[in-house]
Design a protein that fits this description.
The complex is a heterodimer of chains A (86) and B (181).
Chain A: H1 6-18, H2 23-35, H3 37-58, H4 70-84
Chain B: H1 20-32, H2 43-66, H3 72-83, H4 110-120, H5 123-133, H6 139-146, H7 150-173
Helix pairs in contact in B: 1-2, 4-7, 5-6, 5-7, 6-7
Classes of the chains: A mainly alpha (86), B mainly alpha (181).
């Protein structure tokens, strides 16, 4: 069984967020992380990135689209008026 | 898969770019279909539901337009990823630990930093990452939505995470001198 390189380990770290790894890949990743500090750090950073993104998505204003510009507002009003007068 | 994302009313994958005419479209179709509106839900929920549908339609449409091929930005990102590892697949520059998550996750400027970094990604990769991390979509759903194979989405997510990590480190943690590039 080959030991993962950092390239493979980082791929596996990302993949493990979406899908369960095969037992073989879990082993390879585990062994690699035992000896590689960089990949242990990277795994934590991938987690933190996920946290940060979900946090932004769930906070009230941050993730929201910016308020409509006045011009867009005006355009919508015109279209609606046209529709209503049909 | 852990669900870390509190689902807000908005599809979070719409976060960085929310086309204005989409909002207009949604309002218009709400107006046209106002007869179908039942009082069971609030207007707000109803409108947001329509907007969500419009957004996913828009994504599908955009995907069909761009065809499932690599854009120059995709290629540039792929090439950049190659530079992160040596010939033997080792990190060229070992990732350094970030400060404890609690110390920065509440910060008000985090959103802007994330968005800046997302904007630098190829659009499809940013979409994939947002759909997975924020909308809690399984990879199969993301693949279907974006019109790529599951394998391709996995590669995109991997590249996107490497790039986001790098970008955040430089723009957000700011504790790196510019010696790596």
């Amino acid at each position: 069984m080959n030991i993962f390189s950092c390239r493979h380990a980082s791929e596996a770290a990302s993949a493990s967020k979406q899908q369960e790894l095969t037992r073989r890949a879990r082993w390879q990743l585990g062994i690699h992380r035992l000896i590689c500090r960089g990949c242990r750090v990277y795994a934590r950073q991938v987690e933190a990135l996920g946290h940060a993104m979900s946090r932004i998505a769930s906070t009230t204003r941050e993730g929201l689209p910016t308020p409509l510009a006045a011009a867009a507002r005006e355009r919508i009003r015109r279209v609606l008026e046209r529709e209503m007068s049909r | 898969m852990a669900t870390r994302c509190t689902r807000g009313p908005w599809p979070a994958s719409a976060m960085p770019m929310w086309p204005r005419n989409l909002v207009q479209d949604a309002l218009l179709s709400a107006w046209r279909n106002r007869a179908q509106y039942e009082q069971r839900s609030s207007e707000r929920t109803w409108l947001i539901g329509i907007l969500k549908h419009k957004w996913f339609d828009y994504l599908r449409h955009r995907v069909r337009q761009q065809a499932a091929q690599e854009t120059p930005r995709d290629q540039a990102l792929a090439a950049w990823v190659e530079t992160q590892f040596s010939r033997f697949g080792k990190w060229r520059r070992m990732p350094d630990p970030w400060p404890a998550t609690e110390s920065w996750i509440e910060s008000a400027e985090l959103g802007a930093a994330l968005r800046q970094c997302l904007d630098r990604l190829p659009t499809a990769s940013a979409d994939a990452l947002l759909l997975v991390e924020c909308d809690d979509q399984p990879i199969t759903a993301v693949a279907e939505l974006l019109g790529f194979s599951v394998g391709n989405v996995a590669v995109r997510l991997h590249r996107a995470r490497l790039a986001m990590r790098y970008c955040l480190e430089r723009r957000w943690f700011n504790n790196k001198e510019d010696s790596s590039s």
